[in-house]
Amino acid sequence: MPETASIVMPSLVPLYPLREIVAFPFMIFPLFLNGDELADFEELLDREQYVALVRARGEALPGQLPPLCQVGTLCKVDQITRLPEGGGKVLLEGVVRVQVLEVSRAGRTLHARCEPIHEFVEKSLVSDALVQSLNALLKIALSYGRPLPDDVMKMIDLIDNPARLADLVALYVSLSLDEQQQLLETIDPLERLKKVYMHLTAEVQRLQVKGEVQAEVTKRVGKSQKEFLLREQMKQIQEELGEDDSRSAEMIDLRRKIDAAGMPVEVRRIADKELKRLERINPASPEYTVSRTYLDYLAGMPWRVATQDNNDINQAETVLDEDHYDLQKVKERILEYLAVRTLRERMKGPILCFVGPPGVGKTSLGKSIARALGRKFIRMSLGGMRDEAEIRGHRRTYIGALPGRIIQEIYRCGTNNPVFMLDEVDKIGLDFRGDPASALLEVLDPEQNNSFTDHYLDVPFDLSNVMFITTANLLDPVPSALKDRMEVLSLAGYTDEEKEKIAVRYLIPKEVEENGLAQTPPDFTAAAIYKIISDHTREAGVRNLQRNIASVCRKVAKELTQGKPHRETIAPETVDEFLGPRKFFNEVAAERDRVGVVTGLAWTETGGDIIFVEATRMTGKRELILTGSLGEVMKESARAALSFVRANCAEWGIDEQLFESSDIHIHVPAGAIPKDGPSAGITMVTAIVSLLSGRAARRDVAMTGEISLTGRVLAIGGLKEKVLAARRAGVRTVLAPARNRENLEDIPIDVQNELEFIFVEDVREALAAALQ
Ligand SMILES: Nc1ncnc2c1ncn2[C@@H]1O[C@H](COP(=O)(O)OP(=O)(O)OP(=O)(O)O)[C@@H](O)[C@H]1O
């Protein structure tokens, strides 16, 4: 590169106006010219080696000089290359700044009288600091992505002349043509260096902001792209590690399931997060199974799957009638319930609760409701449930944790609006592991169950479309908070006649079909059915009746396959033959009347039953002994009975002294079965009076009623069940509280006709009727 000091300027130099660039000293640059321009340029040079390149701020007006700047750069022409497509490339090298003193035109060429601008730089602390700062700043710009060729960077490192450094760096800072020209015109090198420094600082700031914006944009826009890339990379890593494709296939499958599950947004977010976690877990670790099972549950829950309801009430009525005999009141109430549900889209209505002894059709009514509505049916027993987690599930932090039974059943059934029958709400327990009843309340309460949160699932699931129905054998033990939310429908039990009809219309066809006898159905005679009912079953419902019919059918099937003659008719003798000796006897009819033994009527889980209250007396010290698994209430009613008899003993000719010298023992046999309730009061009074007065009690008179200390007889519950039990046991007369007279209408007419009913207000009336 020529040194500026060595240049001897000719008096006139060719001048070439530049429009698109500003030429700087030390700059090596090409100038591309078309054919005409090249011809002009060559004419201009006319064997000269130097040319002054000066910026023109616009086109020349005809006959005038172009508007030229005052400062330009004297350049050396290194090479002219003609290009094949026409025109050419002139390679130039900046030598020195020149001040243009005068311009002259000769034809199409310009010449100028110029003066070189010599720069003298004295090195100083300021110039050193500026050079260093500029160097450092350049490196920062470089780190922000400002492109700078390696050799230029090296060159910059070597230059310690501020004037040259300023000119060189100026070439690599983004500047407008005007800014470049200004720099060219700044003669003081330190001043120029400062300006370059300012421009570079501004550029670094721009780069920094641009970098931040870009990073933000990349973060947002590129997230999915990044995920894609990462996933691809992971796939490659897995392949290299030899992990087979089945895992990625499993993930794809799981993702597809999650996509198809129709989860609410919040749940979807959790599922996606869990899936990402799963992808990172080693499939051999137990954690993998835990996470996988959880995702299976999330994806498998019927978030949006529901069956279409059939709202045709007439059709529902037909289904209920098809499946069940009688039960008019209950069916009527069910239909009303369904009708209201149809009219009101989202009924926050009561939960139906079927109460009654086993085998009266509670479960099968639930099934029929599901069939009528076209919904799926789930049945779940709450009996003996003590742990809240059985309903609400365990948190996933527990090893082997699973959702509660409610969510499990919904998951299994695959729709979010099944008919869900919760059996035995009266048997639900409570202990240190929590209160399942309160968890159940959350499930059943229409106010809260649209966001039921199972501990395992840990996200809310809407149970408000589920139709819950509960069943219980007895209503009393049902927790009152639950009772409040339920509408109770009682199913009391059947008379023998009803049972016979149920057998003929429903149970026998069902069992015949079940046992493969549809082609050759045996004909059960009415007498045979009655025989099964009275000799082989003692129940309020028809469960055992169905079992015995099934047993008969199996035996017929066995004979048929053994090639024995086909039994076309099942007569009472056939029943004897197939089912063996009778299992139940008419205790009451068979027994003789005794002193101190009285027939009572009790209401138990299995319906009504007869009990015997026995009283006996020993010499002693006025002690009352009570045995037979009696509950507290029953014990109290025994004490009240004794007090009443003692207070009024003269009425029945009993010596008061007898109480002073006696211990009285009251026992209620079937001692293993717990008994409770106040309704045996009247029976206890009768047993004590019978014992102490020596008058035998009529065995075929059965009684029920609570007593007050004055002898008033108070109302009791479950009269229908008790009456049916009395009839089964062969009782002829039923003594009941006068206040229960209205319940008589629940009792079938044929039963009413068969039994004598005595409604009493005072226990004395009962004594008169029962004692001989
Ligand atoms: N009124 C009826 N008409 C026709 N079949 C009946 C009737 N009542 C009961 N059944 C039949 O008796 C059988 C037992 O009934 P189900 O299982 O519904 O009793 P449940 O009351 O639910 O007993 P549990 O309390 O033990 O669950 C079923 O096969 C049912 O179809």
Automatic annotation (TrEMBL):
Q: Which SMART domains match?
A: AAA, LON
* Keyword Protease belongs to the record: yes
Q: Where is the Lon N-terminal domain?
A: 13-204
- The answer, when asked if Metal-binding is one of the entry's keywords, is no
Its annotated compartments are:
Cytoplasm
| Pfam families (alphabetical) | AAA, Lon_C, Lon_lid, LON_substr_bdg
**Active-site positions, per UniProt?**
S679, K722
Q: Which reaction does it catalyse?
A: Hydrolysis of proteins in presence of ATP
Among PROSITE patterns, the record links this protein to: LON_N, LON_PROTEOLYTIC, LON_SER
Superkingdom is Bacteria
Listed under GO biological process in this entry are: proteolysis
> Under the GO molecular function aspect, what terms does this record hold?
peptidase activity
The entry marks the following residues as binding ATP, namely G356, P357, P358, G359, V360, G361, K362, T363
What induces this protein's gene, according to its Swiss-Prot or TrEMBL record? By heat shock.
Query: What does the record give as EC number?
Result: 3.4.21.53
Q: What job does the chain carry out?
A: ATP-dependent serine protease that mediates the selective degradation of mutant and abnormal proteins as well as certain short-lived regulatory proteins. Required for cellular homeostasis and for survival from DNA damage and developmental changes induced by stress. Degrades polypeptides processively to yield small peptide fragments that are 5 to 10 amino acids long. Binds to DNA in a double-stranded, site-specific manner.
The record's subunit annotation is: Homohexamer. Organized in a ring with a central cavity.
Family as reported in the entry's similarity comment = Belongs to the peptidase S16 family.
The protein depicted here goes by the name Lon protease
Can you name the source organism? Geotalea uraniireducens
